[in-house]
Specification:
The chain is globular. By secondary structure, the protein is of the alpha+beta class. It folds into three domains: 172 residues, no CATH class; 76 residues, Arc Repressor Mutant, subunit A; 91 residues. 38% of the residues lie in helices and 17% in strands.
Length: 399
């Protein structure tokens, strides 16, 4: 008998993804405990240096935790040591309970792989010895004036050595001072009860599969090892085995041709309990939901690109446009700027998706969310510069 493949409607698929992402009725809890629960569930929160509005890691957590404060993340890293900094698909905050799954990458770097730049073994030894002797240090602690005789202690080589040692796992980020990393020896940062056994490649893939399904509800094979090289073959084997055992189920989504997806029986059974929400989310360009652009376009029909890396003449929407998620659809994007010195939050431009017509319900929710987000970024005044004149007039009623 031919095995029947489960089929979901696009609405069901979106509901499951949004619920799994903590964007529909999140149940992480409150405060610092809720922040840790969110990170453990999502499996990572990407770090980004851009601060046009709020840094990506804080923005992503605020979207899921209404009472989120930036101090929670710092305390979890420095005091509680329940999260740590390392690479997921990019630089991220990761749950300490998943520490051992960072070790395969560290092993590769310790085995000779270079992080962006050629390695300077002499500088690496100097940096490591200095931290051993003096304790936690920042890159600026290695800054010396260049002389004609030597450039050995100049800033750039030391910074490169710090990052390489960090990627190898010999150093960890003990805390952030401002936004600058403070490095220390791993053995002085890592809690003593943490499992440090290196997983096999199969165990590592099984972990990625498990966390992907928990945090997204539905996955595609190509999404499991996103931006992780050399894992495609093992990922395929692991998924085939899990499907054969019945712990994973194969499915299709109506309207998405030539693609199969994977989930679990528990996740699929939960769909009927999910209710459509009437919330609005102003998401970070680096939010877990939107970071894989192909998935975003395929399932949510939203073609999105952050344009800060695009030359200005070629930008279509603006430097740092944020996606606007309304109910279960992406309906707009806007280009913001938080002028903290003057406590003013600017919408430099607002663009609605084709076919979407804003109404009073949308405007009320958008205004409430915008005021809340503006306050989170340290602003108490909102200025809309460029938008449809009718909408601009209507939204001002609620701001």
């Amino acid at each position: 008998m031919k095995k029947q493949i489960i089929s979901l409607s696009i609405e069901e698929a979106r509901l499951l993804i949004l619920k799994s992402q903590g964007l529909i009725s999140p149940d992480f809890g409150k405060g610092k405990k809720g922040t840790l629960a969110a990170i453990e569930h999502l499996s990572y929160v990407q770090i980004d240096t851009l601060s046009v509005i709020a840094r990506a890691h804080h923005h992503t957590l605020w979207s899921r935790l209404p009472d989120y404060k930036e101090s929670y993340l710092n305390e979890l890293l420095e005091k509680d040591k329940t999260i740590f900094e390392y690479w997921s698909h990019a630089a991220s905050y990761l749950p300490m309970i998943d520490y051992r799954y960072s070790l395969p990458r560290k092993k590769a770097y310790a085995g000779g792989k270079s992080h962006w730049f050629d390695q300077d073994k002499k500088m690496k030894k100097y940096v490591l010895d200095k931290i051993k002797a003096e304790g936690p240090l920042q890159s600026k602690d290695f800054e010396h004036k260049r002389t004609e005789d030597t450039n050995w202690y100049e800033w750039k080589p030391a910074k490169r050595a710090l990052e390489q040692l960090f990627m190898e796992g010999k150093l960890m980020v003990a805390r952030r001072q401002g936004f600058q990393k403070v490095y220390d020896l791993t053995e002085r940062v890592l809690p003593v009860d943490i499992d440090t056994s290196i997983p096999t490649e199969k165990e590592y893939i099984q972990h990625l599969v498990k966390k992907s399904i928990e945090s997204f509800g539905i996955i595609n094979e190509n999404e499991v090892a996103y931006l992780r090289t050399g894992l495609k073959g093992t990922t395929n084997k692991v998924l085939k085995q899990l499907l054969k055992e019945g712990s994973l189920l194969e499915l299709t989504i109506d309207g998405i041709n030539n693609a199969t997806f994977i989930s679990t029986e528990r996740q699929l059974k939960s769909i009927e309990k999910i209710k459509t929400n009437n919330n609005i989310h102003l998401l970070s360009p680096f939010d877990n939901l939107v970071i894989q652009r192909k998935r975003l376009e395929r399932i949510f029909n939203f073609d999105y690109q952050i344009e800060c890396y695009v030359p200005e003449p070629k930008r279509k929407y603006g430097y740092f446009t944020l996606p606007v998620l309304y109910k279960n659809n992406f309906v707009a994007r806007f280009d913001p700027k938080a002028d903290r010195a003057n406590k003013t939050f600017y919408i430099k431009s607002m663009h609605f998706e084709k076919g979407f017509q804003s109404n009073e319900d949308f405007n009320i929710l958008f205004a409430e969310k915008l005021k809340s987000f503006s306050n989170f970024t340290g602003c108490d005044k909102i200025v809309i510069e460029k938008a449809d004149n009718k909408w601009k007039k209507e939204i001002k009623k609620f701001l």
